[in-house]
Structure formats: structure tokens, C-alpha cells
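Quick one:
INPUT:
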């Protein structure tokens, strides 16, 4: 039976140790496949040598690509398209990145609300080269603040640095606005919070929440026809 569609979930991965991130993304793809009956779902990280080319060859032409990235910056607008072309992908289409989805941003607000905290830090990667990643994290912080909690952003790669945020008490939470649990989440963010004297709770990375596969599946269902026009890349 012909598949209803071919979906490829692509993430950055962990260049220093590609294996664990590649395996974690494969597990996510399996869960997404379970909520997308009839679809062939694959995955690849850009950090794992040969992974993207192998996934493209396995799924065939006409891929719908879902970027498991937190912003629509250089990686998704320039680098990923060039890597797909180099991998031999033909007739592919791309959805908006994970962190750009309204449902994902709404999930971040829900996670803070569910924590019961009165204060929240949205920890994001940021970029010294583009304002886009910071703008998305800032929007999420504003959405959290609109629900009542005091909220701020802290970044790894730009100002305001996460390590410089002061004045958050024991009732605060820090939500890593990240798609997966890599070195930034398990090492850099805790170290920065310790440097800042943060006394609150560190929540799991946003992308690890059990609702994420359903959000991805819904984005695929809703975005398939839209991407045939304005969002077509390859």
C-alpha cells in the first residue's frame, strides 16, 4: 500500500557526540508515525555523518520536511535546504520550524502554568548573527507574562545572558526553549543558572513534552496543502 505521505523530521543534533541525539530523534519519529497512520516517517540529524542522505534515499522523492528547530533562521532557511539538495532530495517541501508553531509556543505557556510558578525564565540559545531566535523566545516570555507570572528571557549566545539574570526566587522555574536534550540543556543551562544564583526549578526541555508528537502530526495535517505553494523550497 502506498504511504499517505513521506515525512522527514530533521534536527541539528550534537556534533561532538552525534549518536544519542540521532537515536532520540528516531524515537520521536516513531511516536509521530503512530499518530500519523499511513505516513512513512523518518528522521535525521545534520550532525550525524550520512544520516540525511540515508533518510532521503529511504523515503524517496516528495518529502515533507519538518525542521525540529526553534527558529526560522539561517539553519532552516539556508543551511538545511542546501543539505537536502546535497543529499539528493527531490520535490521536497518544508513546514515551519518547530519553535515557530503557535501550538508549540502555547505549550510553553502551558508548561509554566502547570508548574504553578509565579516567575519564569525562558532559556534559549539566541544568536549574535540574527535577531530571529531571540524574537521568538521574547514572544513566548511575553505570552507567559500575559498570564500573570513575571517572565524574562535568558540566552546562551547573546545578551541578556542567562548567567546574568538576577532576582528570581525559589518559586521560579526555568523552561529550556529547546527541541531536545543536548549539551546546552544538560550542561550549559544548569551552569549558567548556578552562576546567576538561581534557586528555582529547571524544567525539562520543551521538545521533550509528551504532547509534542501530536503537535507535529497536526502541523503535518494542516500544513501539507499550504506548503505546496508559498512554502515550497525544492
Amino acid at each position: 500500500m502506498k504511504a499517505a505521505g513521506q515525512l522527514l523530521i530533521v534536527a541539528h543534533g550534537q556534533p561532538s557526540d552525534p549518536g544519542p541525539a540521532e537515536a532520540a530523534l528516531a524515537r520521536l519519529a516513531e511516536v509521530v508515525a503512530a499518530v500519523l497512520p499511513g505516513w512513512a516517517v523518518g528522521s535525521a540529524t545534520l550532525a550525524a555523518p550520512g544520516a540525511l542522505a540515508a533518510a532521503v534515499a529511504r523515503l524517496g522523492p516528495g518529502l515533507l520536511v519538518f525542521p525540529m528547530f526553534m527558529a526560522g533562521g539561517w539553519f532552516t532557511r539556508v543551511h538545511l535546504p542546501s543539505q537536502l539538495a546535497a543529499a539528493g532530495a527531490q520535490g521536497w517541501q518544508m513546514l515551519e520550524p518547530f519553535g515557530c508553531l503557535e501550538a508549540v509556543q502555547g505549550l510553553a505557556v502551558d508548561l509554566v502554568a502547570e508548574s504553578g510558578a509565579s516567575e519564569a525564565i525562558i532559556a534559549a540559545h539566541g544568536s549574535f548573527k540574527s535577531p530571529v531566535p531571540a524574537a521568538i523566545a521574547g514572544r513566548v516570555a511575553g505570552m507567559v507574562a500575559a498570564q500573570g507570572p513575571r517572565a524574562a528571557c535568558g540566552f546562551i549566545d547573546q545578551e541578556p545572558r542567562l548567567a546574568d539574570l538576577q532576582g528570581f526566587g525559589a518559586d521560579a522555574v526555568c523552561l529550556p526553549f529547546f527541541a531536545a536534550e543536548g549539551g546546552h540543556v544538560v550542561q550549559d543551562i544548569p551552569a549558567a543558572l548556578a552562576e546567576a544564583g538561581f534557586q528555582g526549578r529547571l524544567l525539562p526541555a520543551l521538545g521533550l513534552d509528551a504532547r509534542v508528537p501530536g503537535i507535529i502530526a497536526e502541523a503535518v495535517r494542516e500544513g501539507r496543502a499550504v506548503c505546496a505553494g508559498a512554502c515550497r523550497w525544492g
